[in-house]
Amino acid sequence: QVQLVESGGGVVQPGRSLRLSCAASGFTFSRYSIHWVRQAPGKGLEWVAVISYDGSNKFYADSVKGRFTISRDSSKNTVYLQMNSLRAEDTGVYYCAREDCSGGICYFGYWGLGTPVTVSS
Amino acid sequence: QSVLTQPPSVSGAPGQRVTIFCTGSSSNIGAGYDVHWYQYLPGTAPKLLIYVNSNRPSGVPDRFSGSKSGTSASLAITGLQAEDEADYYCQSYDSSLSAYVFGTGTKVTVL
Fold first, then answer.
1. Average pLDDT over residues A61-82
2. Distance between CA atoms of A28 and B9, rounded to whole angstroms?
């Protein structure tokens, strides 16, 4: 079965860095784009970034552009989110999600359980 | 920050029907971008409920249905059950933001 397992979250001071991992299993990893979505405490879901199935295309939300970098390692079936210059407003639970498509329309088909990130001094 | 607006909460008695509306604009739903719905229980993985406006993934009960019209979309739950108590989010794409966008979220309470 499809599984996405996030890890790497924790407590970090403002301005510091953190790298999240999303380990995938149960499907052909190299065929799917993967997204990161986050939820701040008491807030709704916010899309963060996406990397295409082959890693050639990457897109980011304006709120993280220039600070976050998404990447993938097909040998490890893992997607990473390198988060630099962290701010208090980056606090939240970070989910990775597999992009599924139907008739060219894509959506978040499977999600992981998330990993919490707290940015605080 | 959300560009898709949902009511904060809806409630209904077991067996009743509830509808959640998702209102967008001319740069997202009104521009023709499709709408998807997710069910979210804190502490669990969000779950795809409806994709491309009205399609249910396998395993999702037919009590859940979706539709889209103009700049809005809706999710209906008929025959409400206790297990439906959760948060629900609509999602689309916004061409002005060049970003995937979510609704503000709606908490469904079963009375």
1. 97
2. 38
A46/B102 CB distance under 8 A: yes
CA atoms within 13 A on the CB side of B29: 25
Longest dimension (CA), chain A: 47
Q: What is the mean pLDDT of residues B39-60?
A: 94
Q: Cβ contacts of residue A38 below 8 Å, gap of 6+?
A: A45, A46, A48, A90, A92, A93, A94, A95, A117
pLDDT at A36 over 60: yes
Cβ distance of A44 and B34 shorter than 8 Å: no
The per-residue pLDDT for B42 is 81
pLDDT beyond 80 at B2: no
Interface test with B, best of A2, A36, A38, A45 (most B CBs within 10 A): A45
Please report the number of interchain residue pairs, chain A to chain B, with beta-carbon separation below 8 angstroms: 66
CA dihedral (B32, B36, B42, B43) positive or negative: negative
Residue A59 has which token pair?
Answer: 């897109």
H helix runs in A1-121, sequence order: none
pLDDT reading at A26 higher than 60: yes
Nearest CA in chain B to A105: B52
Residue B46: which of A43, A47, A95 has the nearest Cβ? A95
Q: Nearest C-alpha of chain A: how many angstroms from B14?
A: 26
Q: What is the C-alpha separation between A117 and B48, in angstroms, rounded? A: 24
Give B55-71 pLDDT, tens digit per residue. 999 999 999 999 999 99
